[in-house]
Amino acid sequence: MGDSTLSRRSFARALSGWALLPKAMTETGVPAPPSANPILKTLAPVIASARHVRLHDDRIRDVASWMAYEELPWPDFRSPIQPEGNDADTMDFIFLTSTINFAFTDFERHVMFRVDYAGAERSDSDAMVACLKRAFDRGIPILEGSYLAEVRKTDLEEIFRGNIVMPMLHERLAIFHEVGRLLKERYEGRFHRFVQGGPQRLYAQGEGVLERLLAEFPSFRDESDYRGHRVSFQKRAQLLFWNLHARFRDGGFFRLEDSEELTVFADYIVPVALRLLGITSYSHELEQAINTYRIIPAHSEEEVEIRAFTLWGMHLLTKELNALRPPHRQIIEPVVDGRIWTHYHTTHWPHHLTVTTAY
């Protein structure tokens, strides 16, 4: 399955205005990711030689032909499951939820984590957020680095009481200890002080908030090796700054100056949507492994290809959508991600299972 089904016409359209990779790469018939985005650029070796995942450009056009006429609004991240009234607390809470925003399905029983909060049942990542909000409501100092650095496993077992034991609790404990220690040592215990320490851009010659976060907080780094090439996804780190931008951009507390550089977020759910929409298809072996709930190892070729084609397929879908939308209704990739994720995150269609802290 190494050859993409991208047509020559869409190939030319995708490359319009973009810098090309060396000729040897582009002769495969696969469009080169734009050089301006450091994450998309790393996908090129995967897209050029994938063996397990295929992209179907005709389906991208078909989906865009009807999705382009939806409203596709920017999200409003004001929610009863996050603190409101104090912008610093809200920002630090969003950071905290982003540090452990991964793995909400029991890998053996295939049961999703759920919890009742504020009169509603929450599932998946919403359930994790609700548990932390419940702890915040009870006065537990979860936003303080000093607390996170010393929190015990028994404390987390109580905080994350739900229908099942929170998956990968040991890994979440280790991450809380890491970020708590770093916040305490460098930023007086609070994340908003980290944000205030540099420009409000993802990329700024090493000083952007995304660049600094990845340099200073190791648990956010999300990269894989693919046949000797480094492939970058940065799912949780990008999602953090998208959440902050969408929440604060109209109020002035935080606003990304280069939000158009965000990609979508390579997780478990968006790949399912792309499969069901016909935008991607998998080899028989990979499809069989997913449908029989076999673990797809982290950093394996199969897992890297699933995630790479998620980013690339959604990137091309966004371009097709914008080609059909008027100038005042142009959208960025996280908006399309939100449209897809909200429609499919509770689907019963099986998603790939990978034991990882990346997503």
How is this structure best described in words?
This protein is mainly α and 359 residues long. 47% of the residues lie in helices and 6% in strands. It is built from 17 helices and 6 strands. The protein has helices at residues 8-15, 23-26, 38-41, 44-49, 57-67, 87-99, 124-137, 145-150, 153-159, 169-186, 191-195, 209-216, 235-248, 269-276, 284-291, 301-324, 333-344; strands at 53-55, 114-117, 120-123, 223-226, 229-232, 280-282. The protein has a two-stranded antiparallel sheet with strand order 1-6. It has a two-stranded antiparallel sheet with strand order 2-3. α5 packs across α16 and α14 crosses α17 (333-344). The chain is globular. The two termini are 26 Å apart.
